[in-house]
Amino acid sequence: MSDTHPPGTRAGDDVDEAAGVRFADPYRWLEAESEEVDAWQDAQGAAAAAYVRDWPHFDRLRELVAHYDSERVASVPLAGGGRWFRVEPDAGSARPCAVVADEPYGPGRVLFDPAAQGSEKPPFLSWISPSPDGTVLAVGVCADGSERNTIRLVDVASGEPLPDAPAQPLKDSWTGGAKWLPDSSGFFFTATDDDPVSAAHQIWLHLRRSAPTTVAVDAPWLPGGDYRAVVASGDGRRLVAVQGLFDPVPVAVADLDDPAAPKWRPFVTDASLNLPGFLVGDEWIAVTDEGAPRGRVVAIGLDAADPNDGRAWRTVVAESEAALRTVRPVGDALYVHAFVDTYSELRVVDRDGTPRGNVPLPGRGAVGDLPFALMNILGPVADDQLVFAFSTLTRSWGVYRHRPDAPRLETVREPAVGLEDCVVEDGWATSEDGTRVPYHLVRRRDVLLNRPRPALMVGYGGFGAPWLPQFPGPMAAFVASGGVLVHTHLRGGSEFGRGWWDGGRLRNKQNGFADLYAIAEDLVATGVTSPNLLAVSGASGGGLLSGVAATQRPHLWRAVVPQVPILDLVGACRDGYGRYVVDTEYARVDDPDEVRRLAGFSPYHLVRDGVDYPATFIVAGDTDPRCPPWHARKFAARLQAATSGDAPVLLHIWRDSGHGWATDKEVLLTQETEWLAFLAKTLGMTPPR
After folding, report:
1. Given this model, what pLDDT does residue 362 score?
2. The pLDDT of residue 1
3. Coil, strand or helix at 652
4. Is 270-416 a domain of CATH 2.130.10.120?
5. SS3 615
6. For residues 345 and 83, what is the distance between their CA atoms, to the nearest angstrom?
7. Cα separation of 109 and 155, whole Å?
8. Where in the chain is the domain with CATH 2.130.10.120?
9. What is the distance between the alpha carbons of residues 201 and 217, in angstroms, rounded to a whole number?
């Protein structure tokens, strides 16, 4: 067994600076990619792995995690040419394959198997996109876990690869991969440059002619390097250029005459607006928070005198107590996804807003929207049915189909796994400023709350992304082992509309952290748990949340697990993508006062010598372009040197692993088992047999 104690780390005398404000940066050398850093990182990872494998129940917990493993993000089959295309593991293959079938989940034929690509390490299948006529399948493959992927084309009839796929790399899957022209003659895609941390994007059109060509396509984009996409309207008459990951707007439209040289007409040119939607006939129909913090559905005519004037928009669905999330056209109807006290509701209305009833959802849970607004408006528009995923806190994603005016919901695929004989309880805590903050408890029915129990708080609270009340996947193993899972809804998300996001971002960012502490204190006050049995974890922005929790309130937790975290918010501003993230959510760092405020919740800068910090296990990937691994390295080194207690501070950075969107499933399974084993070992839990 390897040594369970991590190596010591030398400190330097580097200084970081932003807007003239200077900060000691003793572990700046850990940002480098060097042999010394590699050796240090490998030794840290070996100590972390040895520590959790020294716990006698590791293998049993891995079995349990594998049992509860499920899709992190919902996926549904895609239709094309009367066929259905999906991603799923094939018998005999350890990795998901692209499959074609006559029914959404009918017996299928493998079209693309990553394991058959002839490389020692098969690539990750990031996305699929069938042509409208169903003759060609475009897929995105990632070789190193970074999400950076390239396009392959497959002939559906023969299953053979097609030559002349475009060579330009895609940054990720967030713009939907290939966005096909209605006649299947080609597709648009959003590529990036060679810098993995760049925020720049370029639109390309790949035309499948006798001599396939790939040409750059420009549009009258708004200033800034935000995400961009071009997509054809559902009726095939027009192109729409959309810009903005979190607050997308249709910046321009063009008639679909020559897709390689569109004659763009500027449309909505106010980047402060938020209009995720679809072009339906001669109107852009969208959910907006303009004049309606909880959202309303509006229609903007293409011939509007001023498309930026919200007073002139036609209201289709007025603002109400429900927080509207997305709208999707299906035939002559609109399906509107809303949150009511954090749970999903799916309404059906006519295009003039006349109600046609609610979809009878299979429980209290979440419709499978993607986290950021742009991601939900780039999919194909259905003619006569909505196929969607739905999950609850005790059941994994099932897939369902609904047709307008149908009295019942059709189950296309049952949930694959669930937590049996468990209960979900809703709670509310009062935050520091008086705001009521909701949370959900998930526990085994026989785990009574008559004494403090091991509890794991999880959350996100950022970028307007709702923290969906969905199945917890591997964390279900924590519940099965007798723990209480606490699913939190913190300001910074969008569960209650725009005000919930704005109330926890930029100058209000501390509110989201205060919400977390209020829930934790409520759990302690009501006897659900105690500080010596309480843990907190989260990924990405939730990794920051965990790091802030450990450094602002170290005595509130027994254990903290930041996953793929951003932890040095000042240093993050030195690269393009990091600056984009910080400017969007945390602070405007051209202002010295804003930089000082930023440092007030930057975990790397909050660590103080001589504090007894909680047990900490930090998980990261060495090819992560969003939260590069040096964040985890620097924070771990600083925390290891500063803590006065004997609780372990461990770090495991995984090779060929990124932010989680393109990580090999087997690697991800082991990652999840490690940090859950760390919690179980620390909290004195034993997985059931």
Report:
1. 96
2. 42
3. strand
4. yes
5. strand
6. 29
7. 13
8. 270-416
9. 11
DSSP for 308-355 reads T-GGGSEEEE---SSEEEEEEEETTEEEEEEEETTEEEEEEEETT--E
Structure tokens at 175: 């713009």
pTM: 0.97
The conformation of residue 135, written as its DSSP 8-state character, comes to S
The C-alpha torsion from 527 through 532 and 537 to 541, rounded to 10°, is 90
For residue 377, give the nearest of 461, 224, 295, 274 by alpha carbon.
274
- 423: its two tokens: 């209960």
Q: Which residues contact 45 (CB under 8 A, 6 or more apart)?
A: 651, 652, 653, 654
Angle in degrees, CA 30, 148, 673, rounded to 5: 65
Please give the pLDDT value at position 182: 95
Please count the other Cβ atoms lying within 10 Å of the Cβ belonging to residue 688: 10
- Residue 585's nearest CA partner among 245, 135, 210 is 245
In angstroms, the CA 306 to CA 313 distance is: 10
Token reading at 596: 């000082």
> Contacts by 300-303 with C-beta closer than 8 Å and gap 24+?
300/268, 300/275, 302/253, 302/267
The residues pairing with 355 across neighbouring beta strands, listed in sequence order, are 349
Q: Using CA of residue 415, residue 420, residue 426, residue 429, what is the dihedral sign?
A: negative
Sheet holding 202-207, edge to edge: 179-180, 186-191, 202-207, 213-217
515: which residues sit within 8 A by CB, 6+ positions away?
Answer: 429, 431, 435, 437, 461, 488, 490, 491, 504
CATH class of segment(s) 15-68+421-683? alpha beta
Whole-number Å distance between alpha carbons of 412 and 604: 47
SS3 600: coil
Q: Which residues contact 285 (CB under 8 A, 6 or more apart)?
A: 277, 278, 279, 297, 298, 299, 316, 327, 329, 334, 351
Alpha helices (H) in 422-575, listed in sequence order: 476-480, 498-502, 509-525, 541-552
Question: Residue 667, Cβ neighbours under 10 Å: how many?
Answer: 16
**Cα–Cα dist 509/544, whole Å:** 12
pLDDT along the chain (689 residues), means of 10: 82 96 98 97 97 97 96 91 89 77 95 86 93 97 94 97 95 95 96 72 92 93 92 94 97 96 97 96 97 97 96 96 97 97 98 96 96 91 90 98 93 96 98 98 98 98 98 98 98 98 98 98 98 98 98 98 98 93 95 97 98 98 96 98 98 94 89 98 96
Beta bridge partner(s), residue 155? 136
367 HSE (CA, 13 A, CB side): 27
Give the tokens for residue 663: 């990580």
Locate CATH 3.40.50.1820 in the chain: 15-68+421-683
Angle subtended at Cα 531 by Cα 529 and Cα 535, rounded to the nearest 5 degrees? 80
**pLDDT score recorded for residue 663:** 87
Please, which residues bridge with residue 17 across strands?
22
Q: What is the 3-state secondary structure (H, E, C) of 211-254?
A: CCEEEEECCCCCCCCCCEEEEECCCCCEEEEEECCCCCEEEEEE
